[in-house]
Amino acid sequence: MAEAYCPASCGELLQGWIFGGEKLISCPINWYSRVSVTLGKPGQNERPRMRQMLRQVLAHFGEPPLLAEKICIEFESTIPVAKGLASSTADIAATATAAARLLGKSLNDEALARLCVALEPTDSTIFKDLTLFDHQTAQTRRPFSWLPDIDIVLLESSQTLITAEFHQRNRHSFLLKQAPNLAKAMQQFCLANERRCCYRLGEATTLSAIASEATLPKPQFHQLLDIVEHSGIYGLNVAHSGSVIGLLFNRHQHDLDRLLHTLHHKSLIQYYPQTHLVKMVTGGVR
């Protein structure tokens, strides 16, 4: 038996038209998809893309395709689906790594990225560092070594959105229109990384979230912006192809109880009925 697990992402820190094409920087958090593969009859506890990835890994290593019929995939996941939390990326990346381990092999970052984007747009949670990534072609990968000490109030609405379907929409004109704002966001992100400044990071993520409103508006978004401004937390980020929002803060510097009270007092919980406290973590498949 071989196992692997990959983190979720609370939306994206940035996503949009950056350096001549659409790219993103994911926000890995401490929710995971855990996949185990064993030699045996395929069971029922798997998702379709997991089996597709298994076949890709076998082909990558020159193994016979029929071997897939003798491999059982099982998984456990704490990641809600179709919300912009990178659940599918976590599933397929963990499957790829577990399958490689079962074969006595390993996948480097480049090979894993190519395998994942061959199936679907892929979040940069597959990399250890925060990474600017071309999630559709894997041709751009720029890592940042800083892991900010950030807690997140994750606001989950009841809305769902299939990421692959979202990327089939014609968003080109919207992306180009917001490119200057994303350039500012990227500049702030680079400064945040250079200076290890969470407040500047929050400025960057908030700029990207505001730009995302043009293509995928979030309920009560401007009220949430007001809360960020008046509470003094770092900022907010969104799922640019999903429905979740993250309020970025540090529990040792900011008043979590007051923040949650404000969300209830302003009746925002009716729009985001599930509220979770999560933590930004190192990315990559374990």
Automatic annotation (TrEMBL):
Residues 53-120 form the GHMP kinase N-terminal domain. Gene3D superfamilies: 3.30.230.10. Pfam families: GHMP_kinases_N (PF00288). Coiled coil: none annotated. One of its GO terms (molecular function) is kinase activity. Keywords: ATP-binding, Kinase, Nucleotide-binding, Transferase. InterPro entries: GHMP_kinase_N_dom, PduX, Ribosomal_Su5_D2-typ_SF, Ribsml_uS5_D2-typ_fold_subgr. This is GHMP kinase. It comes from Yersinia canariae. The lineage of its organism: Bacteria, Pseudomonadati, Pseudomonadota, Gammaproteobacteria, Enterobacterales.
